[in-house]
C-alpha cells in the first residue's frame, strides 16, 4: 500500500470545509497543516451577537443566524437553530464541488504507527475513486494500492460507480446514542481498522456528520439535516435523516457511499442525559422510520436529486405524517430546502445528476 501524498490531488480550489460551532475555534490550530490551504465556511449557531474567534492563518467566511435570515428570508425556517444541523446551510452557500464537514471537538488522530492522519486526503481518495454498491468485494476497497477485485468478482461491475459520500470514523469517544452512553460511560474506541468499504445497495446505515465528506455537485441537495433543536421535538437525528435520504437516493441514481477510513480523534463525550432528552422520541420513531426508508420506491422519472428529494418529501408526508405531526412539518421543510437550494444554486438539477 503506497503512502505517497503526491498521488492524491488536494482539490484546494474545489473543496470547502464546513464547521458548525457555538465556541471559539481553537481546535483549528491542530488542523492548520491540513486545512490552511482550504476555504472554511463556519456556521455559528446560537446567539448571533457572540463573537467567535478563529485562529490566524485561515481563509474563512462566517455566517450567524442573522446572516441566514438575511440570505434565505422566510425560507430560513428550514435551517435548524441551537443544533449542529445548522451546518447544512454551509452546504447550500458553498460554490465548490466537494464538502468536508467536521465538528469542533474532533482532533487529528494518529495511526497505529504514531503518524498523524490527514483525514481530508483520505476523504478525497475515497471520493475520487469509484464505489462498488452492487457486489461486495471481500478485500474491501479494490481501488486502494496493493489490493484488487477478488476471484469471482464480475468483470462487468469492476468499473464501479461514482462515489457520492465518504463517511469517516472516530477514535476515542464512539458515536453512541444516549442509552448506550449511559450503560458504557467509560467505553473508548481504540480499534484502528485499516479499511474502506462501500455500503451495499439496499442497505441503510447510520451516517454521522462529524467526519464526513461528499460530492456536493452529485448529492448536495439531499444533504438536508432536517428540523432539529430549538422548537423541535427531537435532536441528534439530523445526520441520520440526511444519511437515510441520501442512501435511498444514491441507490436510485446508481451512486455509492463509502465508510471506514479516515479516523479523527473525537475528544469529548456529550452529556448522556441531555442526549436522551433530545433522542428519546427518535429512538422509538426510528422503528417506523427504518421500515419506511427500506421500502421507499422512487419512480423512474426522478432523474435528479431534487426530483428524488421532492418525491421523498411527499412519501414522508403520506406515510410518516400519521406517526407524528412533526413529519408533516419536516416534509414541508424538505420542500423549502430544495427551493432555497435551487435559488442559491441555479445551475444544478440537470438530468441524471449531471452539472454544467
TrEMBL record:
<keyword id="KW-0961">Cell wall biogenesis/degradation</keyword>
<comment type="function">
    <text>Probable UDP-L-arabinose mutase involved in the biosynthesis of cell wall non-cellulosic polysaccharides.</text>
</comment>
<protein>
    <recommendedName>
        <fullName>UDP-arabinopyranose mutase</fullName>
        <ecNumber>5.4.99.30</ecNumber>
    </recommendedName>
</protein>
<keyword id="KW-0413">Isomerase</keyword>
<comment type="similarity">
    <text>Belongs to the RGP family.</text>
</comment>
<keyword id="KW-0325">Glycoprotein</keyword>
<dbReference type="InterPro" id="IPR029044">
    <property type="entry name" value="Nucleotide-diphossugar_trans"/>
</dbReference>
<dbReference type="InterPro" id="IPR037595">
    <property type="entry name" value="RGP_fam"/>
</dbReference>
<keyword id="KW-0333">Golgi apparatus</keyword>
<dbReference type="Pfam" id="PF03214">
    <property type="entry name" value="RGP"/>
</dbReference>
<dbReference type="InterPro" id="IPR004901">
    <property type="entry name" value="RGP"/>
</dbReference>
Amino acid at each position: 500500500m503506497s503512502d505517497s501524498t503526491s498521488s492524491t490531488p488536494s482539490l484546494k480550489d474545489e473543496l470547502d470545509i464546513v464547521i458548525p460551532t457555538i465556541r471559539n475555534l481553537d481546535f483549528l490550530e491542530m488542523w492548520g497543516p491540513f486545512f490552511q490551504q482550504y476555504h472554511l465556511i463556519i456556521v455559528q449557531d446560537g446567539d448571533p451577537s457572540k463573537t467567535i474567534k478563529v485562529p490566524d492563518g485561515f481563509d474563512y467566511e462566517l455566517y450567524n443566524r442573522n446572516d441566514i435570515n438575511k440570505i434565505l428570508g422566510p425560507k430560513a425556517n428550514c435551517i435548524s437553530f441551537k443544533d449542529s444541523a445548522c451546518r447544512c446551510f454551509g452546504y447550500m452557500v458553498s460554490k465548490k464541488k466537494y464538502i468536508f464537514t467536521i465538528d469542533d471537538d474532533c482532533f487529528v488522530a494518529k495511526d497505529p504507527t504514531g503518524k498523524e492522519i490527514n483525514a481530508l486526503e483520505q476523504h478525497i481518495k475515497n471520493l475520487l475513486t469509484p464505489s462498488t454498491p452492487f457486489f461486495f468485494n471481500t478485500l474491501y476497497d479494490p481501488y486502494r494500492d496493493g489490493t484488487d477485485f477478488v476471484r469471482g468478482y464480475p468483470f462487468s461491475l469492476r468499473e464501479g460507480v461514482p462515489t457520492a459520500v465518504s463517511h469517516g470514523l472516530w477514535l476515542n469517544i464512539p458515536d453512541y446514542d444516549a442509552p448506550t452512553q449511559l450503560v458504557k460511560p467509560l467505553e473508548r474506541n481504540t480499534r484502528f481498522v485499516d479499511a474502506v468499504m462501500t455500503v451495499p445497495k439496499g442497505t441503510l446505515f447510520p451516517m454521522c456528520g462529524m467526519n464526513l465528506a461528499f460530492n456536493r455537485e452529485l448529492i448536495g441537495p439531499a444533504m438536508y439535516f432536517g428540523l432539529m433543536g430549538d422548537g423541535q421535538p427531537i435532536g441528534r437525528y439530523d445526520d441520520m435523516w440526511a444519511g437515510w435520504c441520501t442512501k435511498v437516493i444514491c441507490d436510485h441514481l446508481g451512486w455509492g457511499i463509502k465508510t471506514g477510513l479516515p479516523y479523527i480523534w473525537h475528544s469529548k463525550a456529550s452529556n448522556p442525559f441531555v442526549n436522551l432528552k433530545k433522542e428519546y422520541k427518535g429512538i422509538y420513531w426510528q422503528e417506523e422510520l427504518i421500515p419506511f426508508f427500506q421500502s421507499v420506491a422512487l419512480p423512474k422519472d426522478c432523474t435528479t436529486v431534487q426530483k428524488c428529494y421532492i418525491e421523498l418529501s411527499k412519501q414522508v408526508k403520506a406515510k410518516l405524517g400519521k406517526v407524528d405531526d412533526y413529519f408533516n412539518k419536516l416534509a414541508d421543510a424538505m420542500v423549502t430546502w430544495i427551493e432555497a437550494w435551487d435559488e442559491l444554486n441555479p445551475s444544478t438539477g440537470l438530468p441524471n445528476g449531471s452539472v454544467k
